[in-house]
């Protein structure tokens, strides 16, 4: 599990995917989310604007990221 540090109260899911390098473009992140390829806290998430906060866990293609 990779720990990803954010310096704000929250980060939106699509921005998080770009921040971690999972997606190089916002449109790429949007596709991953809409095709139900991303899980947040163990559940598939289709909300691009989902606010992720410290302690949340994001899963994508076998990789796990914890927000700290």
From TrEMBL:
4Fe-4S recorded as keyword: no
One GO MF term: RNA binding
Stored CDD domains: S4
Source taxon at top rank: Bacteria
Keywords: RNA-binding
Presence of the UniProt keyword RNA-binding in the record: yes
Pfam families, per database record: S4_2
Annotated InterPro entries: RNA-bd_S4-rel_YaaA, S4_RNA-bd_sf
The protein's name in its UniProt record: S4 domain-containing protein YaaA
């Amino acid at each position: 599990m990779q720990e990803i540090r954010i310096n704000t109260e929250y980060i939106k899911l699509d921005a998080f995917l770009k921040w971690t390098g999972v997606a190089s473009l916002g449109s790429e992140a949007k596709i991953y989310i809409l095709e139900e390829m991303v899980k947040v806290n163990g559940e598939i998430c289709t909300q691009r604007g989902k606010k992720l906060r410290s302690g949340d866990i994001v899963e994508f293609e076998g990789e796990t990221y914890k927000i700290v």
